Amino acid sequence: MTSASPEPATGGLAGWSEALDRMERELHGALAQADPVPWRPPIGLGPIPAELQERAARLIEAQLHTMRYLEDVRQTTARHLAAVRAVPRSEAGPHPVYFDLIG
């Protein structure tokens, strides 16, 4: 993603729909490893219209799922890096090195 979309000028259905569209694009970008765009909360939208509440709830659930997934990936990567760093950098002679990534 190159830059955040401009903030909606008005509230109501159109403003909220535009804000949810932007949040969904940013969520997909997080999974696609695109450059993150700092999140800016929508301004001046007022209460979310009833017809968009279900969509917003699905988006929140997708965001939470994505956060858990990315945290799992981060932890797995940290474990792999720790295993690689545990290998001595120089040996007296040529020795095969094996990693136990499961245990």
Give the helices and strands, then pairings.
Elements (H helix, E strand, L loop, with lengths): L11 H20 L18 H36 L18
Helix pairs in contact: 1-2
Offer a quick outline of the entry:
By secondary structure, the protein is mainly alpha-helical. The protein is built from 2 helices and no strands. Helices cover 54% and strands 0% of the residues.
The proportion of strand residues reads under 5%
Overall SS class:
mainly alpha
Instruction: Spell the H/E element sequence.
Output: HH
Could you report the average pLDDT, rounded to the nearest whole number?
Answer: 80
Low-pLDDT residue intervals, each spanning 5 or more residues? 1-8
| Ends apart, CA distance between termini | 38 Å
Largest sheet: none
Number of helices: 2
Q: How many extended strands?
A: 0
> How much helix, percentage-wise, in residues?
40-55%
Number of domains: 1
The whole-angstrom Rg is 22 Å
Oligomer: single chain
- Identify the overall geometry: rod-shaped
